[in-house]
Amino acid sequence: MTTPAAAAEAPNATSWKIKLLYDGDCPLCLREVNFLRKKDGGRGLVAFTDIAADDYSSDDNGGVDFATAMGRIHAVRPDGTVIKNVEVFRQVYSALGIGWIYAPTGWPIVGPLVDWVYGIWANWRLAVTGRPSLKTILAEREARLGAGCSDRCQV
Distance between CA 88 and CA 115 in Å, rounded? Predict the structure, then answer.
């Protein structure tokens, strides 16, 4: 079932080339998403799905649950294939016609180094952006959603 929020995130769902799962509570993630939306220019090539939204469903997003999506960046191809880590950026940028930006990350020496750096970043992302630990975020989400709060009420 598509919710109004999901429909707003992907208005042209039939034409998207990749669905980016992003953390809408992360200021740096939002900065990147805003850049990518601008590059998309309303073409609908990338569907943007906010994993922090209370109505986020793994069923609609390649089976990627909230906890997994919070640990590493993920995207879903139209055929249902799930990709993660730096490969997401390569494919999103490529879909938008600016793949040259991430092309070097596919090179033999550069690629593994970039993947390693991304792994460090992913492990420290929450702390660097001044957010609670993943364990705390998961507990707060469970308490909020378990209590029937759908408007991001405080626990």
Answer: 11
